[in-house]
Amino acid sequence: MAAQAEAPSAPERPLLTLRVSRDSGRTYEPEKRFYSRDCEPSLLNGVMQPCECPRCVGKP
Fold first, then answer.
1. Could you give the CA distance from residue 48 to residue 40 in angstroms, rounded to a whole number?
2. Could you tell me which residues come within 8 angstroms of residue 15 by beta carbon, excluding any fewer than 6 positions away?
3. Per-residue H/E/C for 15-28
4. Residue 9, SS3?
5. What is the DSSP string of the chain?
6. Arithmetic mean of pLDDT, 32-41
């Protein structure tokens, strides 16, 4: 019997790709990609966790 060749796995596509600018678009940070394996289960269900940035932490 001939051995079956495994099909090459397709590269996983990112769920989200971000490039952040902190100076109104003059410069950008390196691209950051988020994959399903990196996300918390709650993110995969479409439920976002509350923001924990310094600006939002003090809001009720």
1. 10
2. 34, 35, 36, 39
3. CEEECCCCCCCCCC
4. coil
5. -PPPPPPPPPPPPPSEEE---SSTTSS-PPPEEE-GGGS-HHHHTT-PPPP-SHHHHT--
6. 75
Residue 1 has a pLDDT of: 45
Q: What is the pLDDT of residue 36?
A: 73
Predicted structure pTM score? 0.43
What is the DSSP-derived secondary structure letter of residue 37? G
Counting every residue, how long is the chain? 60
Rounded to whole angstroms, how far apart are CA atoms 40 and 53? 18
User: Which of 19, 10, 15 has the alpha carbon at shortest distance from 37?
Assistant: 15
Query: How far is residue 35 from each of residues 7, 24, 28, 47, measured CA to CA in Å?
Result: 22, 27, 21, 16
Q: What is the mean pLDDT of residues 25-53?
A: 77
